[in-house]
Amino acid sequence: MKIRATIACSVLAVVTAPAQVPSPKPPAKPVGDAAAAKFKAIWEPVPFNKDINLNAVTCVGPETCWAVGAKSTILFTADGGTTWQVQLGGDPESTDRDLSKVFFLDAKNGWAMAENGRILGTRDGTTWAELATVSGTSYGLWFLSAQNGFEFENSPQASQRRSNDGGKSWTPESRCSVDTSVGGLPRKLPCLLHAAHFLSPTLGYAGGGASLGMAKYEAAFGRTTDGARTWTMSVIPETTHSITDVRFWTEKDGIVVLARGEGIYWTADGGTTWTRSVVQRLWPAVHGVGEGRIIVAIGEDGGIAYSFNGGRTFTSRPFTLPARAQAVTFPDAQHGYVVGQHAMVYRYRIVPIDYTRQGMIAAMAP
Question: What distances in angstroms separate CA 161 from CA 148, 169, 264, 312, 330, one per listed residue?
């Protein structure tokens, strides 16, 4: 079982965006030159119909996704964004706090978080209730079961907090530290963890930064075999920024994304050694890391970089979006979503070669 990390009250309203032109279901993955000639990869617009910034998106299947954003808005789609339903918020004139993170364990159990630590939850994938407000700010939350979850506190204490009741209460559990060498001398440095990804309820990986002082960080990587109770920490040598995203496809194969355009690193031995990917510098950028070893980096300068081999190689293309991208996710190698300002949503998929759609942007295929 894979548990995705990434970084998601009663139903107030249900609003369905105007239906888009029906389109055929995505075909099976093309194989070989002849098959590839019959299909193509595209990004196509499937926006929400009100001017609300969207900050995060997650999916539990190719077309079943939730997006969260400004005005305490939570949107749901079961058809890949062709229609969007409002599960919470959705009022552009509202003064409610923005939601910045969303996480779903499965199609029923999900959580959303605001920057001020307010946590909402659902047990049926539809109806949301307020669960708690944690002190300070958080880098996100992850759940390993419907009851057992944890979150990384963004504060000088840098503690990890755990919930054993589905998110209603949170208890400080541990502080991050890592043994490394600075100037040739051994040091135990405090660290902040920013992201996590689990392959099972016990085996997981995390990334963040080891503090060198004066707002300087070295990339810190963690591995757990006991469901985030304890972490075995290490640093990636010769790095100068924190890890912002981490994803593993097997126990040995994975990648980390570093902040401020420092790059993407891949490993084939569970994080013992790391190799920096060769990729055009896109910064600021949002990164989508999904199943099938697909990685997509979208920069504000109108560029996009694709990798279909877990970050070993990348290919860059122009990618002009009508608004700033805030988050990207790929539930599998043939389906992806980017959300952003002004209710922007674009979906990635494989379509017949003669398919056309207004606003469509050509993409690379696996």
Answer: 11, 10, 28, 34, 28
Alpha carbon 290 to its chain centroid, in Å, reads 9
Which residue, 101, 105, 102, 67, is CA-closest to 87? 67
CB 351 within 8 A of CB 39: yes
67, two tokens: 């997006």
The mean pLDDT values, 10 residues at a time, for the chain of 366 residues are: 40 36 52 63 97 97 97 98 98 95 97 92 98 85 96 77 96 89 82 93 95 81 96 93 93 92 91 90 76 86 90 92 95 94 97 96 94
Secondary structure of residue 291 in the 3-state scheme = helix
Least Cα distance to 287 among 321, 250, 325 occurs for 325
| Alpha carbons 302 and 317: distance in angstroms, whole number | 9
DSSP 3: B
Nearest to 112 by CA among 153, 61, 67: 67
Count of beta carbons in the 10 Å neighbourhood of residue 359 = 11
Buried b (16+ CB within 10 A) or exposed e, 30-66: beeeeebeebbbbbbbbbbebebbbbbbbbbebbbbb
**pTM for the model:** 0.86
Residue 181 CA to residue 102 CA, distance in Å, equals 36
What is the side-by-side strand order in the sheet with 137-143? 137-143, 149-154, 159-163, 171-175
Separation of alpha carbons 120 and 100, rounded Å: 12
